[in-house]
Amino acid sequence: MERKVFTHLVGLRAKALNNALTLAGFRRSQTISYRPACEGCNACVSVRVRSNEFTPSRTQLRIISKNRDLSAISQDKRASPEQFNLFKRYIRGRHKDSGMADMSFNDYQMMIEDSYVETQIIEYRLGSLHDPNGTLVACCLTDYLSDGLSMVYSFYDPTMREKSLGVFMILDHILRAKSVNKPYLYLGYWVDGSPKMAYKSSYLPQERLERDGWRSVC
Fold it and tell me: Is beta strand 70-76 parallel, antiparallel or unpaired with respect to 119-126?
């Protein structure tokens, strides 16, 4: 039985509260900040990458090279039909049995735009730098925190498997955090032994939140 503790992120204090709660292992969804609170279980572990110390592996460098033809455009939280069409293709291809499968455009718009914190939607397009007419292949809703970036939700073209777009977005966000001297990239929850979450352990060095605080993993 899953249990969560949550609070609302609204009003003038929402930004500061989001910073404090993320540091304490919470995640944001629209105007809600939540954390698992299952009785007798602490399997969900918050993970953050130490961006300033991160060095990509050979495999990760190859993925970066494969995506040299992409440009990333950061913009204010604004949902578009183009984003929604990509989102629906992603859900059908990767998570067709999830609760998101039935989301309407209005639902998607709320997910992107309904927040009181500092956040942006980053679009990844094929083509030259900042080309708004390039084909949209990936998106990430990203929160900007006092000590880092937090990838709230990302999605991409599920047919472009050779480009490893999910990995590339994480690598790009690590570089973004490093470029503005933010020490961390928050990746959300990791569960030891979960195949779907195993990829998060590939970004080192990182820290994992335990009962006595953040523990370094190299």
Answer: antiparallel
- Per DSSP, helices labelled H in 49-159 are 58-66, 81-94, 105-113
CA distances from 115 to 21, 27, 69, 79 (A): 15, 13, 32, 13
Question: How many alpha carbons fall within 13 Å on the CB side of residue 203?
Answer: 28
Closest C-alpha among 132, 144, 197, 208 to residue 166: 197
78 within 8 A of 108, measured Cβ to Cβ: no
| The two three-digit tokens of residue 6, written as one number | 């949550």
Q: What angle do CA 94, 189, 66 make, to 5 degrees?
A: 50
Indicate if the pLDDT at residue 99 is higher than 80. Answer: no
How many alpha carbons lie under 13 Å from residue 63 in its C-beta half-sphere?
18
Tens of pLDDT, residue by residue over 55-89, are 999 999 999 999 999 999 999 999 999 999 999 99
Pairwise CA distance, residues 213 & 201, whole Å: 18
Residue 212, class by beta-carbon neighbours within 10 Å (0-12 exposed, 13-18 middle, 19+ buried)?
exposed
In the numeric block, the tokens 């604004």 are attached to 78
Name the band, by pLDDT with cuts 50, 70 and 90, for residue 93: confident
* CA distance linking residue 8 with residue 30, whole number of Å: 9
